[in-house]
Design brief:
mainly alpha
Length: 88
């Protein structure tokens, strides 16, 4: 159970870090524009790939996979509390 909690906290921290980094990168590019001498196609491709990866992180951590993991953990927890009846 502790290992599961540690993995959940780590995943949450990575998701938040990814969101913050995406916000910083996108905000910088929106506020200041491209750095001088930067190839706009290359920067657009890199930022687009990063934003797509951020969408995947959001989908996994906050989407159906996260709720499925929570349901599985709840079912496992309930199953471990049930004691079978033994009939002679």
């Amino acid at each position: 159970m502790a290992e599961e909690m540690k993995n959940t906290v780590l995943a949450g921290c990575l998701a938040i870090l990814t969101l913050l980094l995406t916000g910083v990168i996108d905000g910088y590019l929106l506020a200041r524009g491209l750095p001088s001498g930067a190839d706009s196609v290359l920067v657009g491709t890199i930022v687009g790939a990063w934003n797509a990866a951020t969408g995947i992180v959001l989908s996994y951590f906050f989407g159906s996979s996260a709720s499925h993991d929570k349901q599985s953990a709840a079912a496992d927890s309930m199953a471990s509390t049930i004691t079978p009846k033994v009939t002679p």
